Amino acid sequence: MTLDVPADPRSGRVLRSVARSAGSHADFGYDRIEDLGLAIDEAFAFLLEWTPLAVRCSLVQDGDSVEVTMTTDDEGGTTPTSSWDTSLHRVILESVATDVAQQGRRVAFRIRA
Q1: DSSP sequence for the chain
Q2: How far apart are CA 15 and CA 22, in angstroms?
Q3: Looking at the whole model, is its pTM more than 0.85?
Q4: How far apart are CA 46 and CA 89, in angstroms?
Q5: Which among 39, 71, 67 has a CA at the least distance from the CA of 56?
Q6: Nearest-CA neighbor of 8 among 61, 44, 59?
Q7: Residue 87 exposed, middle or buried by CB count within 10 Å (0-12, 13-18, 19+)
Q8: Within 10 A of 45 (CB to CB), how many other CB atoms are there?
Q9: b/e string for 20-41 if b means 16 or more Cβ within 10 A?
Q10: Cα angle vertex 96, ends 35, 99, to 5°?
């Protein structure tokens, strides 16, 4: 499933809600569902640093895991002053997810049950 949301911090609630539902369908336990919500929050917060107009979030259930890819539009915005390599967002994502990757305006990760 793919969602396009305005690049507004309030849109994070919608993304979290949909992600938690995807985790529930993947038979995640409560803690893993919360981890998925946290990972969505961190990726979304990082992408908002680019000051985009919109964010796209794709969630794919694959057996006992959910693969998430989040991207921003390429129009407008600025380049963040903080580096992904030293970002707290990256540290938190890597603590709850696997296959964490970032390239430009794209963040991807996987959460396993």
Answers
A1: -EEEEESSGGGHHHHHHHHHHHHHHTT--HHHHHHHHHHHHHHHHHHHTT--SEEEEEEEEETTEEEEEEEE-SSS----SS-GGG-HHHHHHHHH-EEEEEETTEEEEEEE-
A2: 11
A3: yes
A4: 6
A5: 71
A6: 44
A7: middle
A8: 15
A9: bebbeebebeeebbebbbbbbb
A10: 125
What are 11's two structure tokens? 């849109």
Place of tokens 């908002």: 48
Dihedral over Cα of 43, 48, 50, 52: its sign? positive
Please report, as a single letter, which amino acid is at residue 52.
Answer: P
Amino acid code (one letter) for 15 = L
| pLDDT one digit per residue (tens) for the chain, 113 residues | 999 999 999 999 999 999 999 999 999 999 999 999 999 999 999 999 988 899 999 999 988 999 999 999 876 677 777 789 999 999 999 999 999 999 989 999 999 99
